[in-house]
């Protein structure tokens, strides 16, 4: 009786692994199996194959026993599972074939630290902010899974003006939202430099850091302070002398003032608010210089002395001033 190729190869699985860690070394055994064909001769000669571009290979031993092994380390973040098709084909004409299907899950290893999308962050907060105001939210992503991807946030402890940063700023460990713990004063603290750490919950945990710069914005909360002429402590007004022969433009005095704010809030202008002798003096808008606007009149010169009261207003350019 001559054999006819009327039987396809049959798989007999000895052992199959359903899951392996992604850091398994090359050569890790996934499956052991035997392939049998009930025909004879070339009709029973079996070759096994895998699809191309998979990180696996087949190793043949004796009597049609095969091993399915890895060829390189796997990466769960690229492929979390593989549907592997093993094809067995006999040598008949025409040949017959059959397939075996193996589903392999790739188990996660904590091999990725959390990463921030930016190399640094900047945030701004106006001074006189309410306590507990949120400033910025930072977020880091971990491509691992489960606990290995659970990210918590913390601030690296440091000091500012001798005080722990943790008394100025806090961060929600789960959300990454940064909060102000106190009301900031621009004239005392203008910026804070923080280091935010994102850690996963793997064993051991992995972490990464990012720099956070917080800038306090000035508010117009300081009035100009007059440095000169200094007001007498007895409540009287300051006195400056000018000769009766003074020509127009003669410098009588200069009002000097400063503003503790910054920028436009500290730009000062001067104006003559009131004078007991109208038209005699003028004040420089930006310099604060008090100069004679005209020569003394004949009637003024007849007097042995002339006392003129001058009231100068100093105003910043804040909104409102």
UniProtKB/TrEMBL annotation:
One Pfam family assigned to this protein is: Cadherin
User: Which UniProt keywords are listed?
Assistant: Calcium, Cell adhesion, Cell membrane, Glycoprotein, Membrane, Repeat, Signal, Transmembrane, Transmembrane helix
SMART domains from the UniProt entry: CA (SM00112)
The membrane topology noted for this protein in its Swiss-Prot or TrEMBL record is: Single-pass type I membrane protein
Domain annotation Cadherin: ranges: 12-116, 117-226, 243-321
Protein's GO biological process: homophilic cell adhesion via plasma membrane adhesion molecules
Location in the cell: Cell membrane
GO terms (molecular function) for this protein are: calcium ion binding
Indicate the principal place this protein occupies in or around the cell: membrane
Q: Which PANTHER family match?
A: CADHERIN-87A (PTHR24028), PROTOCADHERIN GAMMA-A2 (PTHR24028:SF134)
Name of protein: Protocadherin gamma subfamily A, 2
């Amino acid at each position: 009786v001559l054999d006819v190729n009327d039987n396809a190869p049959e798989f007999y699985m000895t052992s199959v692994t359903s899951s392996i860690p992604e850091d398994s070394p090359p050569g890790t055994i996934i499956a052991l199996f035997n392939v049998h064909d009930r025909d004879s001769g070339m009709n029973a000669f079996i070759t096994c194959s895998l699809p191309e571009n998979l990180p696996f290979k087949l190793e043949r031993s004796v009597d049609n026993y095969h091993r399915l092994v890895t060829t390189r380390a796997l990466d769960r973040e690229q492929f979390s599972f593989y549907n592997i098709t093993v094809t067995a084909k006999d040598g008949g004409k025409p040949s017959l074939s059959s397939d075996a299907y193996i589903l392999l899950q790739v188990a996660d290893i904590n091999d990725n630290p959390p990463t921030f999308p930016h190399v640094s962050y900047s945030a701004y907060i106006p001074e006189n902010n309410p306590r507990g105001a949120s400033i910025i939210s930072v977020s880091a992503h971990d491509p691992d899974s489960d606990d290995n991807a659970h990210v918590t946030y913390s601030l690296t402890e440091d000091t500012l003006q001798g005080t722990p940063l943790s008394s100025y700023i806090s961060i929600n460990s789960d959300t990454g939202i940064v909060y102000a713990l106190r009301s900031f004063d621009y004239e005392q603290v203008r910026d804070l430099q923080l280091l935010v750490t994102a850690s996963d919950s793997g064993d051991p945990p992995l972490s990464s850091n990012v720099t956070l710069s917080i800038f306090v914005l000035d508010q117009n909360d300081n009035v100009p302070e007059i440095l000169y002429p200094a007001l007498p402590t007895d409540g009287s007004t300051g006195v400056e002398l000018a000769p009766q022969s003074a020509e127009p433009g003669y410098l009588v005095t200069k009002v000097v003032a400063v503003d503790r704010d910054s920028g436009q809030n500290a730009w000062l202008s001067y104006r003559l608010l009131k004078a007991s002798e109208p038209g005699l003096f003028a004040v420089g808008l930006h310099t604060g210089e008090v100069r004679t606007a005209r020569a003394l009149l004949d009637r003024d010169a007849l007097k042995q002395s002339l006392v003129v009261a001058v009231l100068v207003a100093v105003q910043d350019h804040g909104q409102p001033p």
